[in-house]
Amino acid sequence: MDQQLFAEIYDAHAQAVYAHAVRMTSDPTGAEDIVSLTFLEAWRLRETLDGVASHRAWLLGVATNVLRNTRRTARRHREAMTRLPRPDAVPDLADAVVSRIGDRARAAAALAALNRLRRADREVIVLSVWSGLSHAEVAAACGITEATARSRLFRARSRLRKLTIAHLASEPANGRGPASRTAREGHL
User: Fold this and answer.
1) Contact of 164 with 113, CB cutoff 8 Å
2) Global pTM value
3) What is the mean pLDDT of the chain?
4) Which whole number is the average pLDDT over 135-145?
5) What is the phi/psi pair of residue 55, to 5°?
6) Of 55, 71, 73, 140, which residue is most buried, by most CB within 10 angstroms?
7) Cβ density class 31-65: b for 16+ within 10 Å, e for less
8) 3-state DSSP call for residue 185?
9) What pLDDT, in 10s, does the model give residues 148-177?
10) Can you spell out the DSSP letters for 108-153?
11) What is the dihedral of CA 98, 99, 105, 109, to 10 degrees?
12) Are 62 and 45 in contact (CB under 8 A)?
């Protein structure tokens, strides 16, 4: 069968195949897929069309088989999906977003406060907190004793906390929000 004859069969019967598929599925969008699959299968089987008395009846038979196969595939898919473990509940991200906003405000306030510290205090904070050095390593990096590093770090953290709280309280948008409340409660 040549392409021209097949195109004529398509033009003559595509609407009937679509109507059949809509009646069988009650789904106009799904029926379009059935029509596509039906004519794809008909093209594959086009050599058997030569002895067919009614192209319309033959195409509706192909469409019926396509519908059966589609339903069988959908059923198998549903059954396979029921065998999969249920996904864990998706956590509510609202709390995490609010927490990140508060964390971002506290981090910005801490950075602003860090810049207001004395150079020596800033050095021990950065080396200890951001670089992760131990007291002994901070002492070696700064050229001071370990005891001095400990006391300087303690004082620097206290000053940083006070300056951060003051910074958060001075900002109107953050002054009433959870970030400053957390900082005022000493959770910096």
Assistant:
1) yes
2) 0.45
3) 83
4) 90
5) -65, -35
6) 55
7) beebbebbbebbeeeeeebeeeeebeebbbebbee
8) coil
9) 999 999 999 899 889 888 888 887 654 444
10) HHHHHHHHHS-HHHHHHHIIIIIS---HHHHHHHHTS-HHHHHHHH
11) 160
12) yes
Q: What is the largest CA-CA distance in the chain?
A: 103
Hey, what are 74's tokens?
Answer: 């959908």
Q: DSSP secondary structure string, 24-69?
A: HHS-HHHHHHHHHHHHHHHHHTGGGGGG-S-HHHHHHHHHHHHHHH
**CA distance linking residue 65 with residue 57, whole number of Å:** 12
Name, in order, each residue with C-beta under 8 angstroms of 27's C-beta and a sequence gap of 6 or more.
none
> Six-digit token pair at 23?
């009646």
Nearest-angstrom CA–CA distance, 170 and 69: 69
Tokens of 100: 């990140």
| Listed residue (90, 126, 100, 77) closest to 182, CA to CA | 100
DSSP 65-110: HHHHHHHHHHHHHHHHHHHSPPPPPPPPSHHHHHHHHHHHHHHHHH
In 3D, which of 34, 42, 32, 33 has the Cα closest to residue 10?
42
